[in-house]
Design a protein that fits this description.
A hairpin with a 6-residue loop joins β7 and β8. By secondary structure, the protein is an alpha/beta fold. It has 13 helices and 26 strands. Strands 13-14-15-16-17-19-20 form a seven-stranded parallel β-barrel, surrounded by four helices. The protein has a five-stranded antiparallel beta sheet with strand order 3-2-5-6-11, with no helix packed on it. It comes from Flavobacterium notoginsengisoli. This is NodB homology domain-containing protein.
Length: about 500
């Protein structure tokens, strides 16, 4: 490490070879597991192993990722920002074409990475303010909010003891006259804030103005409150974080504008997957496989199951931009052929369908080999990480798409989250009205769905009983900042201790 210039690196690995095999690994759920499968610990999981001779080994800091390959358990890889561990979506034009980049890093360790060899046990910290419990965080996109349903949502969450990071449009500029905005609905949004929810920007408006007006809005808007730290991109607004590579502003200018407006938390425009039965914990990579998704939707009708599976294969398993564009073009051409009788789109429809069909058939053909392979943007369980924009450092978060609250927040899923000491940051649309959105919050414009209501009531009771911590996004990140300061050391008797007196719950890992 003394010969490495960290300022010149954006990623690097340290490979450690032991003369003893690693036989046990401290898992994300704070249990010991065997190394009979590949194991990964991200920055918010314990970094503790046991060797065959009984020796404990622990990292002195929590930075980076530990990775063990089941085929060679003598080797521990300590990885810093490997590919797809901290991904960010970048839309490179206005036709929805994107690429995935890696976060830009500033490695500023509290101490140089080192291994410790305690005589009796390791030490682990709780991710949750409620010691070693699960975490449920909701970030809601306000695309369909109205003055009326905002009140209904707020009262519903108050009844169920659930807190939300609630997106809002600052300005009223929308193709829908009844869209809520801070401009028109300030009083109601302030009621959300008074109830303990967090308000956050969902870009600045529902619809898109011309480029000149859009950037004038972005550069000149005045924060309506002094504690708005979260920005969630909406659609394809020209000034979005996800469109920065196509932006008229430089990275330095963009970072300075956000910093001047006290914004320091951004969405990476990526979902780890789509929540359904058995898919709820962003720390558990087994939730983000084709087999888990198929099992979670087994009770759906055949047609719906096939539709969802095809989309999941393309968007999450392959996550290949050319395939995603072909899928979108195929869907668009199908509608033009069927509903608009435009036969000229038949040939491109057939061409794209055959290309997609070949890739999907490959998955079916090699199903046993690929069904349990984690999606590439979920392999390292990215949830919260840092990214440099210009010369400013920001926090970036990744979400779990949550559309069907009947399946996603079933008692089974909530119990799974609790049992696994899991985490999710949900990407939601609480006010979505479209009937094809199964399991949505609203049964109609004025009524909450009964089954969804029962699920939230069950969740609220678990929050009340402190089995689940339900922070706003900023509360979660503020608490997790403590992980940046953790430093472990060994005393003269070989006992491990934390020497920075961090205000995180601590216990022995024996």
């Amino acid at each position: 490490m003394t010969q490495i210039k960290l300022s010149e690196l954006n990623s690097f690995d340290i490979e450690i070879v032991f003369d003893q095999p690693i036989i046990e690994f401290r898992n994300y759920d704070y249990t010991w597991v065997k190394c009979d499968e590949d194991r990964i610990a991200n920055e918010f999981s314990p970094k503790i192993i046991k060797l065959k001779n009984g020796q404990y080994v622990q990292a002195n800091i929590n930075d980076g990722i530990w990775e063990i390959n089941k085929k060679n358990t003598h080797i521990l890889s300590w990885r810093f920002n490997p590919e797809f561990a901290e991904p960010i979506a970048n839309y490179i034009d206005f036709n929805n074409k994107k690429e995935i980049s890696t976060a830009k890093k500033r490695f500023d360790f509290p101490e140089k990475p080192a291994l410790l060899f305690p005589v009796q046990n390791g030490i682990e910290f709780s991710r949750s303010k409620y010691p070693f419990s699960a975490i449920a965080c909701f970030t809601d996109h306000c695309d369909f909010d109205t003055a009326e349903n905002l009140v209904l949502q707020r009262k519903f969450f108050e009844e169920n003891n659930v807190k939300v990071t609630k997106g809002f449009f600052l300005n009223h500029f929308s193709k829908r006259a009844d869209n809520a905005s801070f401009q028109n609905d300030k009083e109601e949004l302030l009621e959300w804030r008074n109830d303990g929810h967090e308000l956050c920007y969902h870009s600045l408006s529902q619809s898109i103005k011309n480029e000149k007006e859009s950037f004038e809005d972005f550069e000149n808007f005045v924060p309506p409150l002094n504690d708005l730290k979260v920005w969630i991109d909406h659609g394809f607004q020209p000034y979005n974080f996800s469109l920065l590579s196509n932006n008229v502003l430089s990275e330095e200018e963009f970072g300075e504008i956000l910093n001047a407006k006290n914004i320091n938390i951004l969405w990476n425009y990526i979902d780890s997957g789509t929540s359904t039965n058995g898919i709820i914990n962003q720390l558990n990579t087994k939730h983000f496989t084709l087999a888990s998704f198929l099992k979670g939707n087994k009770n759906l009708g055949l047609t719906k199951k096939i539709q969802l599976m095809i989309k999941n294969i393309i968007f999450h398993y392959y996550n290949d931009e050319n395939m995603i564009l072909k899928y979108k073009n195929t869907a668009g051409n199908f509608k033009k052929i069927i509903f608009q009788k435009k036969i000229k789109f038949l040939l491109p429809f057939i061409k794209n369908s055959l290309s997609l069909g070949k890739s999907i058939f490959k998955v079916i053909l090699f199903w046993e080999k690929v069904k349990n392979k984690p999606y590439k943007l979920s392999k390292y369980s990215p949830i919260v990480f840092k990214n440099i924009i210009g010369n400013k450092e920001f926090y970036v978060f990744q979400t779990l798409e949550m559309l069907d609250f009947k399946r996603s927040l079933s008692k089974h899923n909530i119990n799974t989250l609790i049992d696994e000491k899991g985490v999710f940051i949900a990407h939601t649309y609480f006010s979505v009205p479209m009937k094809y959105h199964q399991g949505r919050l609203f049964a109609d414009s004025k009524t909450i769905d009964l089954e969804v209501s029962e699920n939230f009531n069950y969740l609220g009771n678990k929050i009340k009983n402190r089995e689940i911590w339900n922070p706003t996004l900023t509360e979660l990140i503020e608490y997790w900042k403590g992980f940046d300061k953790i430093i472990f050391d060994i005393d003269l008797d070989g006992n491990i201790f934390e020497k920075n007196n961090i205000l995180l719950e601590i216990r022995k890992a024996i």
